């Protein structure tokens, strides 16, 4: 899948454009987050989404109750078992969004240049003149001349359902702990302190101390403090729907490019939202949307997050499949050589021991045209560092479980670390047998390697006579070795 890569700067041959897209076990290196909801919560549909390429399931708590999401999660678990496809769980917190309380559920039509009263009194009936809202402190939060955005754009993706008006933090500790969530999506992150507070909160919740925090950048305040937020967070979600409200539309692409570059250099996943809104109701994306997905990949994004498209869209499985195909096509022309040089230059010298090993593994894999890189890791850090250099071939991250204790009982770690690889571009995790320690004798390493190679063969990414680059610890030393497979 890597031998005939073209660089984007090269003239692209028409023959390669006319070639049909090929499907494989790894639909794309770029990861797809699917939001589960009314149209995508049955075992059958979730199974279809997993087969189509979804690797992270997002549960959006800005709507629906915990019981509803729990039912969906049980269906996800059944689908994972049926398809044998690993899937991580992301809990998306309720952000600073106001909801209009419309008990009549009638369509509301607001008049241009009309006057509207926003009231916390839920006894009032919603109309074109009065909008009851779920926030009593609005009058203190805004001042005369401020703009309030009202509408369903964020939910429906339709501009026609939105208007602008001018003015005249328990779920995590219950649902999150119970279900050992892999990712917490922190809505409306404004400062690094927001991430620190969330991490401190999670650290007191047992297993959730391992949960990765993804900061959602949705407004100018988050954008202003982006560098400090990135330092504290495990990853970034560029929430372009909300950003497009707070930021002039013509500036959003600039923020995307700058933010993704910073995430890439920091080796932290960057996830882009609002890419194929039209697929909420259509079987195909617009040409502009397809180009947008490809450009997100070429910018260096790790993942694409689908919201309304899978939550309530008519074609959740097809949407995931098409987005995966677009990502795979863009990855074929991603200029890895240029990216590698930029990353090495940014890291500077002297490199840390792990960084040097990771970059060497990628360089070796590209030079010998390896079909895959296999990395043995306990924390997942070594595999993430390899992925940071964006190799053109998949990285199978073999997570070796570690025995740990809380003084009351012993347990194995590893499941969190494996699932958290599912939001890093190019990383495909597998959990090793706990009886094989990470730093072990040559015999047990060979045994785990055989399992990894068999997995690669079954997946179709490793064939006879292929070269494979292996990154592992032997005693105190980190080793990169190249093997050539026999028949």
TrEMBL record:
Residues 355-475 form the Pyruvate kinase C-terminal domain. Gene3D superfamilies: Phosphoenolpyruvate-binding domains, PK beta-barrel domain-like, Pyruvate kinase, C-terminal domain. Transmembrane segments: none annotated. Its EC number is 2.7.1.40. Residues 30-151, 174-320 form the Pyruvate kinase barrel domain. One of its GO terms (molecular function) is potassium ion binding. It is an enzyme of class 2 (transferase). It holds the Pfam family PK_C. Pathway: Carbohydrate degradation; glycolysis; pyruvate from D-glyceraldehyde 3-phosphate: step 5/5. Belongs to the pyruvate kinase family. This is Pyruvate kinase. It comes from Rhododendron griersonianum.
């Amino acid at each position: 899948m890597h031998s005939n890569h073209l660089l984007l700067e090269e003239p692209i041959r028409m023959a390669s454009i006319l070639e049909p897209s090929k499907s494989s076990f790894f639909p794309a290196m770029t990861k797809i987050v699917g939001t589960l909801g009314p149209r995508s919560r049955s075992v059958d549909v979730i199974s279809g989404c997993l087969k189509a390429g979804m690797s992270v399931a997002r549960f959006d708590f800005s709507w629906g109750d915990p019981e509803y999401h729990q039912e969906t999660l049980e269906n996800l678990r059944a689908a994972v078992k049926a398809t044998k496809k690993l899937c991580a769980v992301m809990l998306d917190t309720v952000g600073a969004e106001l909801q209009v309380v419309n008990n009549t559920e009638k369509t509301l039509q607001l008049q241009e240049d009309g006057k509207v009263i926003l009231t916390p009194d839920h006894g009032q009936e919603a109309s074109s003149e009065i909008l009851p809202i779920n926030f009593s402190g609005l009058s203190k939060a805004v001042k005369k001349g401020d703009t309030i955005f009202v509408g369903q754009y964020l939910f429906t993706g339709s501009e026609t359902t939105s208007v602008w008006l001018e003015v005249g933090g328990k779920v995590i500790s219950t649902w999150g702990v119970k279900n050992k969530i892999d990712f917490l999506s922190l809505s409306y992150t404004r400062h690094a302190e927001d991430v620190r507070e969330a991490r401190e909160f999670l650290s007191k919740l047992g297993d959730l101390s391992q949960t990765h925090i993804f900061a959602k950048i949705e407004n100018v305040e988050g954008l202003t403090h982006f560098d400090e937020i990135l330092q504290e967070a495990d990853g970034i979600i560029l929430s372009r729907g909300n950003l497009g409200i707070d930021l002039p539309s013509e500036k959003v692409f600039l923020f995307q490019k700058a933010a993704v570059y910073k995430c890439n250099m920091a080796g932290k996943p960057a996830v882009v939202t609002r890419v194929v809104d039209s697929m909420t109701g259509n079987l195909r994306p617009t040409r502009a949307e397809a180009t947008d997905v490809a450009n997100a990949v070429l910018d260096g994004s790790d993942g694409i997050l689908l919201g309304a498209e899978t939550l309530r869209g008519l074609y959740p499985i097809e949407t995931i499949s098409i987005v995966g195909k677009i990502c795979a096509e863009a990855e074929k022309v991603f200029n890895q050589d240029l990216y590698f040089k930029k990353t090495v230059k940014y890291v500077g010298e002297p490199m840390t021991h792990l960084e040097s090993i990771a970059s060497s593994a990628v360089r070796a894999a590209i030079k010998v045209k390896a079909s895959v890189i296999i990395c043995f890791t306990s924390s997942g850090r070594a595999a993430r560092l390899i992925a940071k250099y964006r190799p053109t071939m998949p990285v199978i991250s073999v997570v070796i479980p570690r025995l740990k204790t809380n003084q009351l009982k012993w347990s194995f770690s590893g499941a969190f670390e494996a699932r958290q690889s599912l939001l890093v571009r190019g990383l495909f995790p597998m959990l090793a047998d706990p009886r094989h320690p990470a730093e072990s004798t040559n015999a047990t390493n060979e045994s785990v390697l055989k399992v990894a190679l068999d997995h690669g063969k079954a997946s179709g990414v490793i064939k006879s006579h292929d070269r494979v680059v292996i990154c592992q610890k032997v005693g105190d030393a980190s080793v990169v070795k190249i093997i050539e497979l026999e028949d």
